[in-house]
Sequence to fold (183 residues):
Amino acid sequence: TGFLLIQVLDTSFATTHKWGVVRIGGEMFAGCFLYRAYQLGLPERFPYAWVGVAVIVLVLLNPDLPIDIGVTLIIMAFLLLVLGLAMNQQPFRILFGNRASIYLGDLSYSLYMNHWLFVGSGGLFGYIQFTTIYTVIAVNAAIIGMSVLTYHFVERPSRAWLRGFVKPTNSSSTQPTGKSADK
Fold:
């Protein structure tokens, strides 16, 4: 669908301010469908994560690839990578199943929400030039540092506060008979 819309609308999904909502919505639905396929059972021996990594590497090694095709392939590759991780495929389980990786996963929303401050063209620090590896390391460290703060002092408290608005119901119409909401 993305390829078709790119051709028909003569636009790019690579930028959020134009058709990003279409791209992001498609990513969300793809994730929902992938989760459903995972629930229904997929062949476990297929190397999903390896295929995802291979596609990512091929895209990165092909600088002449049109950006929309590259973005679409990367999105599909990440779906495969996530599926491989969900299936606990080696060696990805070792790489991403450790405490540091899991904590970075916990920070992922804060990372997503904060990165634009440093690297976005309209962001607060959009003037940063990534001319050296030291700049890249410093900016990434700053993004992670800010994300740690917003995760612990904004995201988690906000999540707890919002959960206070959603109370489990004890109505018989929403629960099977004989089951409590806590089970």
The helical segments are 2-9, 16-40, 48-60, 67-86, 92-96, 99-106, 108-119, 133-163. The chain is about 65% helix and 0% strand. The mean pLDDT is 78.
